[in-house]
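Researcher: I need the complex structure. Ligand is threonylcarbamoyladenylate. Inputs:
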Amino acid sequence: MIWRDLSEAKRRVRAGEVIGLPTETVYGLAAAIDQPAAIERIFLLKERPFFDPLIVHVASASDVCSVAAVIRPEEALLMERFWPGPLTLILPRRPDLNPMICSGLETVGVRCPAHPLARRVIRTSGIPLAAPSANKFGKTSPTEVAHVREFWSEAELFVLDGGPCEIGLESSVVRLAPTASGCCVEVLRPGLVTGDELAGVLRESARFGEISVRFLESAASPGHVKHHYVPAVPLVIAPADGHLGEGRLLDAIAQQLGARPQRLAELTLGKDPRVAARLLYGSMRALCEQGADMLVVFRNDGTAEEWRAIWDRLERAAAAELRF
Ligand code: TXA
Ligand code: MG
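Model: Output:
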């Protein structure tokens, strides 16, 4: 079955179609980078603004030179250590790369996905694939085929089934900026590969000088806007207070949002950020489907840097943060 679907995926990519592609982070909406009509179709299918650039997916680090003009030793080291995996590096783009992929920027985001089916499709298609997450613009990313089907029917989109995504949260988007004494790891979108981890690897080599980390987030990533990852019903963030009580919570919601929910459901995150990431989007969907008309998530006191990625998504998904 998988083999038949794999060759079907390859055939469609080569024929200039857009396909649904499993990756370890979230499902992608993928097209070959040398098929301009298919690249344009990705934006149309997603209803995504053309100013928001796509990530190019390669089968191995050695393919990066087909899209990036320059790769510095620091970047090569990060590719060696973190690829295949959920790390997107922003690099200077090659002039012959279709500018629509990069939304006219001089840079391109590149990553090598860890999902074996994704790499197989890229390798057998013989060309890198541009792929954003397989959801309509602003909506929650899909972590299994059924989620992709909320947006497009079987007739509209072929999706290669790779099972549920292991990571469940979009890749970290990072660029390295030279500084007077070394370089700065600039995190544009936090993910489960953390700024500290990246800096730690670069610090192993004295020749890279002093390494710092900075979180730029929405300032530098055109698509990383507020009100993204939005679920089907409003989500509110409440302070980490176990003693709030449902009455006070509902009063605060009514007062601050002007509407009292009939069926409020709690989105629980647990203690382990990796498990929380894997379950996050699926749980949001399940609670909506079970009839909740509002979701609430309580702030937690997790200090691991991975929580930053989860709260980044929740803050963008939320309609409001309650104040007490
Ligand atoms: O895990 C992922 O990265 C998934 C899977 C499918 O690989 N893809 C994904 O793509 O999340 P998308 O398009 O939903 O998000 C890409 C993010 C956007 O915020 C975009 O603005 C940013 O990466 N990005 C892409 N190219 C960029 C560039 N050249 N400079 C700055 N930001 C860039
Ligand atoms: Mg997305």
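Model: Summary of the prediction. The radius of gyration is 20 Å.
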